[in-house]
């Protein structure tokens, strides 16, 4: 399966068919024989703060789109709207004004809905860090900032998964509530994206020096529901890390009830995510390295070939 390619649509369609035929995927999970094949069987979730709401919208097999609402002005942004029809429906449900598309990277499973969405909703500003992003109107780079209503958005350039990958850091000025970061395929809960267009050094910079230095309470909203598989790899790297065991048990329970395992926080990621823990002796010893960047390269290579166990 190539990330962002249309090739895997075939398998997604086949799985959707199986779900439609009445095979409830809810009792199973990755590595347990079946998949949550249908995003309609995965529940959405609304994270409500005084100033900002984030609605998690399951898309395709395991992607997420995110609707961000500024409570003060009722202006909204959508992150990676691969399924535009669902976006339009949820915008209508909330009665908000959608003005902004935040595209994390050009892969089809993230940017593939942009062209259709701009036809359905006129006047959208489409942000992204890569000319390969469809319907792009605002090309951004590191530290580019703008507003969505009263919310402040700062672009963080995190090349590696793709060379033009952007994470979006969203804050409400003068608020005591935690910020949010939309990390696409750079940082996942307990994992990171494949290094399709970058190096271990770049991912180190992205995870440790950029995302790792955000407010530790920042909520992490990532591009895919990969948490269980990621934690099984994390457990393989650090078998004695209790934070991994606990998060895995929690994630399995969430998955079985069709609920998202998102968001996490930056502080939490440092406790169980092996790619955020490359400075730890335990992770370095597993990799047979003493340098964090070489450790990053080694564990990414290992995960590329990791066979996820059933339990
Ligand atoms: N291993 C993925 C396979 C799909 C895949 O390659 N996904 C891309 C993003 S579209 C990726 O970077 N995955 C990170 C990883 O496999 O660790 C899974 O858990 O389902
Ligand atoms: Zn991708
Ligand atoms: Zn992806």
TrEMBL record:
<protein>
    <recommendedName>
        <fullName>Hydroxyacylglutathione hydrolase, mitochondrial</fullName>
        <ecNumber>3.1.2.6</ecNumber>
    </recommendedName>
</protein>
<dbReference type="Pfam" id="PF16123">
    <property type="entry name" value="HAGH_C"/>
</dbReference>
<dbReference type="GO" id="GO:0046872">
    <property type="term" value="F:metal ion binding"/>
</dbReference>
<dbReference type="InterPro" id="IPR001279">
    <property type="entry name" value="Metallo-B-lactamas"/>
</dbReference>
<keyword id="KW-0809">Transit peptide</keyword>
<comment type="similarity">
    <text>Belongs to the metallo-beta-lactamase superfamily. Glyoxalase II family.</text>
</comment>
<dbReference type="InterPro" id="IPR032282">
    <property type="entry name" value="HAGH_C"/>
</dbReference>
<dbReference type="InterPro" id="IPR035680">
    <property type="entry name" value="Clx_II_MBL"/>
</dbReference>
<dbReference type="GO" id="GO:0004416">
    <property type="term" value="F:hydroxyacylglutathione hydrolase activity"/>
</dbReference>
<dbReference type="Pfam" id="PF00753">
    <property type="entry name" value="Lactamase_B"/>
</dbReference>
<dbReference type="GO" id="GO:0006749">
    <property type="term" value="P:glutathione metabolic process"/>
</dbReference>
<dbReference type="GO" id="GO:0019243">
    <property type="term" value="P:methylglyoxal catabolic process to D-lactate via S-lactoyl-glutathione"/>
</dbReference>
<comment type="function">
    <text>Thiolesterase that catalyzes the hydrolysis of S-D-lactoyl-glutathione to form glutathione and D-lactic acid.</text>
</comment>
<keyword id="KW-0963">Cytoplasm</keyword>
<keyword id="KW-0378">Hydrolase</keyword>
<dbReference type="InterPro" id="IPR036866">
    <property type="entry name" value="RibonucZ/Hydroxyglut_hydro"/>
</dbReference>
<keyword id="KW-0862">Zinc</keyword>
<comment type="subunit">
    <text>Monomer.</text>
</comment>
<keyword id="KW-0496">Mitochondrion</keyword>
<dbReference type="GO" id="GO:0005759">
    <property type="term" value="C:mitochondrial matrix"/>
</dbReference>
<dbReference type="InterPro" id="IPR017782">
    <property type="entry name" value="Hydroxyacylglutathione_Hdrlase"/>
</dbReference>
<keyword id="KW-0479">Metal-binding</keyword>
């Amino acid at each position: 399966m190539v990330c962002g390619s249309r090739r895997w649509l075939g398998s997604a369609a086949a799985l959707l068919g199986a779900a439609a035929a009445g095979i409830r995927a809810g009792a199973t999970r990755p590595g347990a024989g079946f998949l949550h094949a249908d995003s309609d069987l995965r529940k959405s979730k609304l994270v409500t703060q005084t100033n900002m709401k984030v609605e998690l919208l399951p898309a395709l097999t395991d992607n997420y789109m995110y609707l961000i609402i500024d409570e003060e002005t009722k202006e909204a942004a959508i992150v990676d709207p691969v399924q535009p029809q669902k976006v339009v429906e949820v915008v209508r449900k909330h009665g908000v004004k959608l003005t902004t598309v935040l595209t994390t990277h050009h892969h089809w499973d993230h940017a593939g809905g942009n062209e259709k969405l701009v036809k359905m909703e006129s006047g959208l500003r489409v942000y992204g860090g890569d000319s390969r992003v469809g319907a792009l109107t605002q090309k951004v780079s590191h530290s580019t900032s703008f507003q969505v209503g009263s919310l402040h958005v700062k672009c963080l350039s995190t090349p590696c998964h793709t060379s033009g990958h952007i994470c979006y850091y969203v804050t409400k000025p003068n608020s005591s509530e935690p910020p949010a970061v939309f990390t696409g395929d750079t940082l996942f809960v307990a994992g990171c994206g494949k290094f399709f267009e970058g190096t271990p050094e770049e991912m180190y910079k992205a995870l440790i020096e950029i995302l790792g230095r955000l407010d530790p309470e920042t909520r992490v909203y990532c591009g895919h529901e990969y948490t269980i598989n990621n934690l099984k790899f994390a457990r393989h790297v650090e078998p004695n890390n209790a934070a991994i065991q606990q998060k895995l048990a929690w994630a399995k329970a969430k998955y079985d009830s069709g609920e998202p395992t998102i968001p996490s926080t930056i502080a939490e990621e440092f406790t169980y995510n092996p790619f955020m823990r490359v400075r730890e002796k335990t992770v370095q010893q597993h990799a047979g390295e003493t340098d964090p960047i070489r450790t990053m390269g080694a564990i990414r290579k290992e995960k590329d070939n990791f066979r996820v166990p059933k339990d």
